[in-house]
Design goal:
With 194 residues, the chain is of the alpha+beta class. The chain has helices spanning 29-36, 51-63, 119-132, 149-157, 180-187, and strands at 8-12, 16-22, 67-74, 77-85, 102-109, 139-142, 161-167, 172-179. The chain has an 8-stranded mixed beta sheet with strand order 1-2-3-4-5-6-8-7, sandwiched between helices.
Length: 194
């Protein structure tokens, strides 16, 4: 499949078209490097990463059986990063009771000199709608840093309910869950494929 072919898209009434395409660890590495090393991406924990470090990390994800990465587009231009993983195999193994249909998620909005009001909320809404577009996804699981209050508010806005803190090797995380029904109630949206 071409990396320019969207896997999912939706139109936000205020901000236009959002889409998600597969990430190419080679052609996207320079773009990602600028995003993950930006001061606003401190919680991504790649501040000191070199370009080869970023390339290696996303090559590893591309080769992984239980982890996928995507570039999110706004009006056709790269604007965010999305990762999907199996929390029963990665990140949260042994830290909670995984259920069939659980999907782990990370997202990162690209830095911008001209922020758009409501943009980050539109991004997380798109990410969640894309995850729930897969009928096998029953619940999305996230584990942001307990100190990342901005993302906790965004998570709550799309239906996440905090379970409580869990200790991961690299951080204390706030384990939170969002079922398909909670997402639909919070946003009025349902996941749909292209």
């Amino acid at each position: 499949m071409s990396t320019t072919e969207p896997l999912y898209s939706r139109t936000d009434a205020a901000l236009g078209t959002f889409a998600i395409r597969p990430l190419d660890p080679f052609s996207d590495a320079e773009l990602l490097h600028g995003w993950v090393t930006h001061p606003k991406a401190a919680f991504w924990m790649m501040q000191d990463a070199s370009l080869p470090d970023v390339e290696r990390e996303y090559m590893k994800i591309a080769a992984a059986e239980h982890h996928d990465a995507y570039i999110g587009l706004h009006e056709g231009r790269p604007a965010f990063l999305m990762e999907r993983y199996d929390p029963s195999e990665l990140e949260l193994v042994g830290l909670y009771d995984a259920r069939p249909g659980d999907v782990g998620m990370h997202f990162l909005v690209a830095p911008s000199d001209t922020p758009l009001h409501g943009f980050t909320r539109a991004v997380i809404t798109t990410v969640m709608a894309a995850l729930f577009a897969d009928p096998q996804t029953r619940r999305v699981v996230v584990e942001p840093d307990v100190h990342n209050t901005a993302v906790h508010a965004l998570n709550e806005a799309v239906g996440f309910v905090p379970e409580g803190p869990v200790q991961k090797p690299e951080k204390e995380a706030l384990l939170s869950f969002c079922t398909r029904e909670q997402f639909e109630t919070a946003t009025g949206l349902t996941g749909a494929t292209v």
